[in-house]
Amino acid sequence: MSQTVKLVVSGIDDTVPGVRSLTLSALEGGPLPPFVPGSHLVIDCGGRQNAYSLTSDGVDPFEYRVSVLKVEGGAGGSAWVHECLSVGDTISALLPRRAFAPVARARKHLLIAGGIGVTPIVSHLRAARTWRREVQVLYVHRADRPAHVDDVRELAGDAATIVTNRADFRQRIGLLLADQPLGTHLYMCGPAGLIDTVLETAAALGWPASRLHSERFGADVLDPGEPFDVVLSRTGMRLRVPSGASLLETLEGHGIAVPNLCRQGVCGECRIPVAGGVPLHRDLYLTDEEKRAGDALMCCVSRSISPALEVSL
């Protein structure tokens, strides 16, 4: 099966200020490949690939839906989505990529979203309704940007709590995390500050790391990271990866080509083998087991815990 799919923009919704929601259908009509909740669609945004969370139902879909926040001055594809696309346009995308899937065996699914981070949470909620899973949702958003609020309310009902200020959100976090049955899994998507707050609170309350699942907004929200050295095992070349620059950018800057697409740690194209050192994984592609093995990393976003990293290039 081809890893790419041609799609036509069959609907555009600009109801929420600053958020454009796209409905994408198969170019020739008919069903599209299914996907698991929390998957991304990597779209070719006018020559740059960007990954967006799918909000539609992944079971026998006839359409894919994504919502894109317009980022002023951003380097991603948001401006292209907001300013260049019209109904009837054709786009190219990679097939949906699994990145933030629910754990089927979980006793309960606790979902926390901030801002446009609600998009994969909506996908989780659709699956929970289909499979009759127990869910609870806490969603904080700007009062003037209520993305998918109606979806959250319709899908979660009384199990949804929606707030519009950070102080209210912070007050609720501790109480919410302290009052969950054993076997609950927590899923978070949103800005780095929100996720860090939730993770710190969960750790203080004794939540095991295996029940905590988070998804940040991609490479743009990652901290610059500490500088480190990378050694290329085939030639012995040693390069310095400075803070604020990715390993991929450093390699490219020295004429070393690495296949890549999304540059956000989602698509898996820039995976390279690790021969020595301890990688700091910041991608959304490798499984937990693959990350623990430490023998590969996505060089577009991941860095090094050790002072130097040896890669098989």
What does this protein look like?
With 313 residues, the protein is of the alpha/beta class. The protein contains seven helices and 18 strands. It has helices spanning 78-84, 118-131, 149-156, 166-178, 192-204, 247-253, 288-293, and strands at residues 4-13, 19-26, 40-45, 48-53, 63-69, 90-94, 108-114, 135-140, 160-163, 184-189, 212-215, 228-232, 238-241, 271-276, 279-280, 296-298, 303-304, 308-311. The strands form five sheets. It has a five-stranded parallel beta sheet with strand order 9-8-7-10-11, sandwiched between helices. The radius of gyration is 20 Å and the shape is globular.
Biggest sheet, strands in spatial order?
A: 9-8-7-10-11
Strand residue content: 25-35%
Average pLDDT for all residues: 92
Number of strands: 18
**Looking at the structure, what is the overall shape?**
globular
What level of helicity do the residues show? 10-25%
Task: Give, in order, the helices and strands.
Answer: EEEEEHEEHEHEHEHEEEHEEHEEE
Question: What is the radius of gyration?
Answer: 20 Å
Computed structural class: alpha/beta
Number of helices: 7
Tell me about the largest β-sheet: 5 strands, parallel
Spans with pLDDT under 50 lasting ≥5 residues?
Answer: none
Beginning-to-end CA distance, first to last residue:
29 Å
Which features would summarize this protein structure in a list?
alpha/beta, 22% helix, five-stranded mixed beta sheet, 313 residues, 30% strand, globular, five-stranded parallel beta sheet, 7 helices
Task: Please render the helix and strand layout as text.
Elements: E1 4-13, E2 19-26, E3 40-45, E4 48-53, E5 63-69, H1 78-84, E6 90-94, E7 108-114, H2 118-131, E8 135-140, H3 149-156, E9 160-163, H4 166-178, E10 184-189, H5 192-204, E11 212-215, E12 228-232, E13 238-241, H6 247-253, E14 271-276, E15 279-280, H7 288-293, E16 296-298, E17 303-304, E18 308-311
Parallel strand pairs: 7-8, 7-10, 8-9, 10-11, 12-18
Antiparallel strand pairs: 1-2, 1-6, 2-5, 3-4, 12-13, 14-16, 14-18, 15-17
